[in-house]
Structures are given as structure tokens and as C-alpha cells.
Write a structure and sequence with these properties.
732 residues; glycosidase; 35% strand; WD40/YVTN_repeat-like_dom_sf; 57 strands; signal; Methylamine Dehydrogenase, Chain H; Xyloglucanase_GH74; mainly beta; 5-stranded mixed β-sheet; single chain; Xyloglucanase
């Protein structure tokens, strides 16, 4: 649990301070972690980097992962390009942070294992959430002179620091200067990894001779993809290898370099690859597993790890090997022979059953790019996937290998939408990539129920206010799979579903309900459903038949009154007016809407993942809240009149709860999470400087049954619930 204190701001008068306890709704990882790195300086210490949810440190005493950037308010710094623990001092760790080429980048330095950070903005752009984020590691520390660091950038060549990352200079002698910043939504691989040979210098307590031999792999098009320096980076020689990108490189304690090659940046779209072994003098040989070639040579090797305790032991993992499935291969004789561990592996996901969300068993995983062998225990091996981190303590030469998710404390998901119904489970969520879940217990990983249809992204959810077991949802499929519907209806609180299918519409007729663009709404009694297709449709027989809604513009979301089954509301953005239906969505007509600003075009965000700008009170009929631009307005007469309801708060997102309204916004120059208990006249900040989560907020809602409870969905750090510390309700 995360405990925070509150800085109070108000529009008219200050309110009493409120302290909130913030806790992750448990899923158990859930997103892509490009790499995991063990500390060579202390047993039981490891770091994990994610592509949009920051970094984590494994706490061996508490047996859980500790998020290291919850106090960070800069969105871009949640995309971790590389991470490097000091090889001599277990308290020191460095990170390269930057989401993409268009956002800020920095080197983060910590002397207390990531509890606090010193931030050095840098001129070279990064791509922690771009293609190629599984390459690496780009950030390397000289084990013989640990204040000396190198960083391989994507777009601007190789860089060096001589003062523990405080300042950086470009290594102008490096043969690849960089391709420059790419066009929007494009990227480069650049200098994909830097590996420093510990045998080429001397330590003498950290102040000896710096290492002379440095390797650097390049993942940009060109004739050469691997370079070696024997004079500390002053001059560089090209090293021969396959006509593939040098994607991942690690060096063992003998100075032997192991390189995973790939035909593309990944994590998707890689067709083939190779594994090579290089002697310290530069002589290389192909050691790609023969059995992998014999099964089609599909995909590549983005996971490469060596064991310091067992020289000659190396492990690799495949990526994008879709036909045969990805696997882990291990050699104990310097790559002469390999053992495919996949066929003798077993996975127990009972503590994170969400991993079964696609309706199949727990396979070896996809997007495997992170792989590490514990430097203090060669049987302890971990690898990362697009959804979890697996680990074993029994990777031996023979016998079965049991893998379990190593994820306690990791919550790295993107939340698109959520609802807290008036009955049933306290929370129902819509996730990106993982579909969504019914959270009966907020502190346990949920089992998957969003099937029939299964959609990888859930974009909209609604519940019937008087019959909360009736849930409807719409979503989109991330993968190109056959499907008959993108909407579903549940009569048991989201535990089982039936498909909702609309008739073709338009000229020529088209199935508009297959792409997940259009939100679905259900009436208070669960009888009426409205879909905001280009020609809005209404059904009163569980979707067996449909008719056109009169007076509701196309692509306009209807919102049901939570207490009156015949009443719906909508915002006509084009005409700048509020619409009301009093005949169960058969027709809509404009109401006065006095008090609203002229023109409602700024009302809410746009796109299929946007939250509704119009919300209805869960406990009384005719009470509406509307966001127009950064302001809130409230109506208690069904939209006839509105009054300002946000004071001086500039609102980004808002949600309703029991006797309160919650918002993400800015007040008094402070961007944060806020609560009002007096219909928006005054606001109290309920997050704090230790709980910012990169400021990557997607959705917020109160709980209609628990006063003060709020649910907050982030873009990368998962889903949170917050409670006032003095709440009279037991914490879920």
C-alpha cells in the first residue's frame, strides 16, 4: 500500500487536509518488460525495466518488486531505454529514460537503489516505448573504473561520461555517428548495446586502470554491425559477422562476447536471426542452435545471458517464432551444443490467472527479449515477455523446469476505461491488450471472463443502475483474427457474456459493429441498449432486433439515467446542445441547457478510447455532470439548466462517486488528483508528490457505494484504488 499526504488548494476556501492510501488493483505485471538485470554486486538484487511503466527493484527481504518512479511526474521518464546497476556498489544504479524521440530524455542516477534519483537531461533522444526497446543494454558501466559510463543512443551515436553520468560527451571517433532524429512515429536502432571487457583493465578497489576493450553493436542498416575498441574508445575496428542487426550483446568474465542478431528491431516483425560467439581478440563464430535452424529459422534471439559462475554457460531466447512457439535454449559448452528447455518446461499461473485471458493455456510467452541468469545461482533464471516475468530456481541439465510468474509488486498495464457499479463487484475494468476484468477482490489477480466475444482492448463499459448485474461493453481486436462481434452483454455482472450483433448499415451495407469504434449504453433497468454507430441503433430485446434512434446524431454517445429507465442524455457537439430522450431512446430532442458556454465542441476527448464528457449521478435522477474544455458544469433538472462546478480547477478527467466528484486536473499550478464534496466549489488534492505515476492518467471514477473511494487508471502503472485514511469502510 502507498500512503500519501495532501496539499490542499481551493477555489473559495481551503478544506481540511485529507490523507489518502493508494493501492494497486492487483493483476500481476501485464505489460511488456524489455529486460531484467541482476546486480553482480549483491545476491538477491535485481532490476526490471518496462516500456511505459517505469522501473522496479526486487526487494529480497520483502519478496516483492518495488516501483522506483511513482514520485516521477514527467511522463516521458516512464519509458526506460536501459538500466545498469553498478558492478561494485550495490547501492548505485543508473537508468536511461525517455519514451520516444519527440519527448524529453535523461540519465537518472541513484545512490540508494532507486529510492531517490538525480536527473541529468541529455541531448540525445531515446525510445523506451518505441520499436527496438528490447535491444541492449545500451548503458554500460566500466567495471574497472565505475565512474566511467558509455551509452549507445538510437539517433546520435555513442556517448561517454567520466563523472558517473553527471555530464556526457559524444565519442566522435565511433564510426557510426547516427542517423538523426526520425520522422514522427519512426525510429532507429542506433547503437543497440555496449559491452565492456572486464579483463582488459584492472580494478584496484575501483580506482585502477579503465577497461581497454569495448564492444558496440549497431542496429541500423549498413555493412557493419559490430565494432571493437582496444584503447578505451579512442579508435574502433569493424568486426565481421552476419548480415543482420546486432541486437543484444553480453560479455562473460573471460572477455568472451555473445551476440544475438536479428533481421529487425522487434519486438514484432523479426523474420530471422543468429547467435555468435566472439573471442576477446575479435575472432567470431556462428553458434546458432542447430535445432532452431532445422525448424524453420523463424524469429531471432533478443534474450542473451551468461553465467558468471559457470564459464561457457550461455542461454538465449527466441522472439517472433510464431509457428513453433518461442523457447529458451541453453548451452554449457560455449555454444557447441544446445538444449531446448521449452519442451520440458511447465508454467504455473495460478497466482496470476489473468494470463489465460486469450482463452488458451499459459505458453512460453511472446515478445521475449529480457533474459538473465542469477550471477550467484546458475539455476535461477528469469525471462520477460509481453505480459509477465517468469522465473525458475531449477534450470538444470535434466528434468522438468517449473516456471512461475515473478511479478509480486509489478503492475504495468494501460487502463482504457472502468466502471464501479451500484451492485456486484466493486470494479469492472477495460484494459489495453488484456481485454478487461471483473474485480471481485481488488487485491487478487482476476481470472479472465471477457469472452464471447474476446476483444484485446475494451474501449467502453456501462452498467444498468437499477440492475447492476447487467453489463455491456465494446472493444477492438489488436490482432487480425476472425470475429463476429465487438460488443457483449452480461446478465451476471460480467462473468459470462453473449455477443451483440448489429445489422449492416449504410450504402453499400457495412457491419459497423466489428471494429470497436462505437460505445454501447444500457438503460437503468437493463432493458434498452443504444449503440453510437454512424446510424445510432437501439434494441429492447437483448439485441435480437434493432431500430434507428431518431434525433441522435451519428457517432454520438448516449448516456443512461441511472435511476429512470426511460431517460437518456447526449451531447450534440456539432450543434452545441444537450439532447434528452424520455421514451427509452426511441427519439432525442434538445433541451435548453442554460448556463453552458456557447458551443460544446471542446466537450470531452475524441476517439474510441475517450471517456464520456457527460456523466449521470448514480444515486439520483436528472443530475448530470458535463465537461466542456477544462471546466465542469452540473445540472439537477435533466439538462435544462447548468451551473459551473469546477471552481478554479482545470479539469482533464473526472468521475462521480458517493457524495463526491473526483478529477485529474491543475489547480494553483499543481497538476494532480482532486476531490470535491461540495459539488465542485472547493477541491482537495488527494495524491501527493510521492504518488505521481508519471502523470499518465487515463480514467478516474468514484465508487457509488463507498464514500471517498476512488479508482484511477493509468497508462503504464496499472490501476489504483484510493481511500481516505480515516475511512469507515474496510479496505478491500
Amino acid at each position: 500500500m502507498l500512503l500519501g499526504s495532501l496539499a490542499v488548494q481551493g477555489s473559495a476556501r481551503p478544506q481540511d487536509a485529507v490523507r489518502y492510501r493508494w493501492t494497486n488493483v492487483k493483476v500481476g505485471a501485464g505489460g511488456y518488460a524489455p529486460n531484467i538485470v541482476f546486480s553482480p554486486a549483491e545476491r538477491g538484487l535485481a532490476y526490471l525495466r518496462t516500456d511505459m511503466g517505469g522501473a522496479y527493484r526486487w526487494d529480497d527481504r520483502d519478496r516483492r518488486w518495488i516501483p522506483l518512479q511513482d514520485g516521477n511526474a514527467t511522463s516521458s521518464y516512464m519509458g526506460i531505454e536501459s538500466i545498469a546497476p553498478d558492478p561494485r556498489d550495490p547501492d548505485i544504479v543508473y537508468m536511461a529514460a525517455g519514451m520516444n524521440a519527440a519527448q524529453p530524455a535523461a540519465i537518472l542516477r541513484s545512490a540508494d537503489r532507486g529510492r531517490t534519483w538525480r536527473i541529468t537531461p541529455v541531448p540525445f533522444a531515446m525510445g523506451g516505448n518505441e520499436d527496438g526497446r528490447g535491444l541492449g543494454e545500451r548503458l554500460a558501466i566500466d567495471p574497472n573504473q565505475t565512474r566511467r559510463l558509455f551509452f549507445g543512443s538510437r539517433h546520435d551515436g555513442l556517448w561517454r561520461s567520466e563523472d558517473a553520468g553527471a555530464t556526457w560527451v559524444k565519442v566522435t571517433a565511433f564510426p557510426v555517428a547516427g542517423l538523426g532524429r526520425p520522422a514522427f512515429r519512426k525510429t532507429h536502432g542506433g547503437v543497440a548495446f555496449v559491452a565492456i571487457d572486464p579483463t582488459s583493465g584492472s580494478d584496484r578497489g575501483g580506482g585502477g586502470k579503465p577497461s581497454r576493450r569495448i564492444w558496440a553493436g549497431v542496429a541500423d542498416p549498413g555493412a557493419t554491425h559490430l565494432y571493437r575498441s582496444d584503447d578505451g574508445g579512442e579508435t574502433w575496428d569493424a568486426v565481421s559477422g552476419p548480415a543482420l542487426l546486432a541486437a543484444k550483446g553480453v560479455i562473460d568474465r573471460r572477455g568472451v562476447l555473445w551476440v544475438g542478431y536479428a533481421s529487425g528491431l522487434g519486438p514484432s516483425g523479426i523474420k530471422t536471426g543468429a547467435v555468435w560467439r566472439y573471442e576477446p581478440g575479435g575472432r567470431g563464430r556462428d553458434v546458432t542452435p542447430r535445432a532452431w535452424r532445422e525448424t524453420g529459422a523463424q524469429g531471432a534471439f533478443l534474450g542473451v545471458a551468461v553465467s558468471p559462475m559457470a564459464p561457457g554457460t550461455v542461454a538465449v531466447t527466441t522472439v517472433d517464432r510464431y509457428l513453433q512457439g518461442d523457447s529458451l535454449w541453453i548451452s554449457r559448452n560455449d555454444g557447441r551444443t544446445w538444449d531446448d528447455v521449452g519442451p520440458r518446461s511447465h508454467r504455473d499461473v495460478s497466482k496470476t490467472p489473468f494470463l489465460l485471458h486469450e482463452g488458451k493455456g499459459a505458453d512460453f510467452g511472446h515478445w521475449i527479449s529480457g533474459l538473465a541468469i542469477d550471477p550467484f545461482d546458475p539455476t535461477h533464471v528469469a525471462y520477460t515477455t509481453g505480459a509477465t516475468v517468469y522465473a525458475t530456481h531449477a534450470l538444470r541439465a535434466t528434468g522438468g523446469v517449473d516456471w512461475v510468474p515473478w511479478t509480486d509488486g509489478i503492475e504495468q498495464t494501460a487502463i482504457i476505461t472502468l466502471v464501479s457499479p451500484t451492485g456486484g463487484a466493486p470494479l469492472i475494468s477495460g484494459f489495453g491488450d488484456l481485454s478487461g476484468f471483473v474485480h471481485d477482490d481488488l487485491d487478487r489477480s482476476p481470472r479472465p471472463t471477457f469472452v464471447n466475444p474476446y476483444m484485446s482492448n475494451t474501449n467502453a463499459i456501462d452498467y444498468a443502475g437499477l440492475a447492476p448485474n447487467v453489463i455491456v461493453r465494446s472493444g477492438s481486436l489488436y490482432l487480425d483474427r476472425p470475429r463476429q462481434a465487438s460488443m457483449g452483454r452480461s446478465e451476471d455482472g460480467g462473468r459470462t457474456w453473449s455477443e451483440i450483433v448489429l445489422p449492416p448499415m449504410g450504402n453499400p451495407p457495412k457491419r459497423e459493429d466489428l471494429n470497436g469504434d462505437w460505445p454501447i449504453t444500457v438503460s437503468a433497468d437493463g432493458t434498452t441498449m443504444v449503440v453510437a454507430t454512424p446510424v445510432p441503433q437501439v434494441s429492447r430485446d437483448h439485441g435480437r432486433s434493432w431500430s434507428v434512434v431518431r434525433g441522435l446524431p451519428g457517432k454520438t454517445r448516449a448516456v443512461a439515467d441511472k435511476r429512470d429507465p426511460r431517460v437518456f442524455y447526449a451531447v450534440d457537439v456539432e450543434q452545441g446542445r444537450v439532447l434528452v430522450s424520455r421514451d427509452a431512446a426511441a427519439s432525442f430532442a434538445p433541451v435548453t441547457g442554460r448556463g453552458l458556454p456557447d458551443g460544446l465542441a471542446p466537450a470531452g476527448r475524441q476517439g474510441r478510447e475517450a471517456q464520456s464528457s457527460l456523466l449521470v449521478s448514480p444515486d439520483r435522477t436528472g443530475t448530470l455532470w458535463l465537461q466542456a474544455g477544462t471546466r465542469l458544469f452540473r445540472s439537477t433538472d435533466g439538462g435544462v439548466t447548468f451551473a459551473p462546478a469546477s471552481g478554479e480547477l482545470h479539469v482533464e478527467l473526472f468521475g462521480l462517486g458517493r457524495n463526491g466528484v473526483f478529477a485529474v486536473g491543475t489547480l494553483g499550478g499543481i497538476r494532480g488528483v482532486w476531490r470535491s464534496v461540495d459539488t465542485g466549489r472547493n477541491w482537495a488534492r488527494i495524491d501527493d508528490d510521492a504518488h505521481r505515476w508519471g502523470g499518465r492518467y487515463r480514467v478516474i471514477s468514484g465508487d457509488p457505494r463507498r464514500e471517498g473511494r476512488v479508482y484511477l487508471g493509468t497508462d503504464g502503472r496499472g490501476l489504483f484504488y484510493g481511500d481516505p485514511v480515516n475511512t469507515r469502510y474496510p479496505l478491500n
